[in-house]
Design a protein that fits this description.
Blueprint lengths: L6 H11 L24 H17 L2
């Protein structure tokens, strides 16, 4: 996998051994974002972001 960088596998193992992560499976792990002023719901904010993104990408 890392033929040209043989120490990459050792470094990956070194990093993995130092990680302490606990994940509760079966439950979504989603970040929370603050709701911008002027929006009552996340849905309204998402809709606005989607329309703005589409307008930037495809115009009109």
């Amino acid at each position: 996998l890392f033929g040209e960088v043989p120490e990459a596998c050792d470094n990956t193992l070194w990093i993995a051994e130092r990680c302490d992560v606990e994940i509760e499976f079966g439950k979504p792990q989603l970040p929370e974002f603050p709701l911008p002023e002027g929006f009552a719901t996340d849905r309204e904010n998402l809709r606005r972001n989607a329309y703005e993104g589409a307008h930037k990408r495809w115009g009109a």
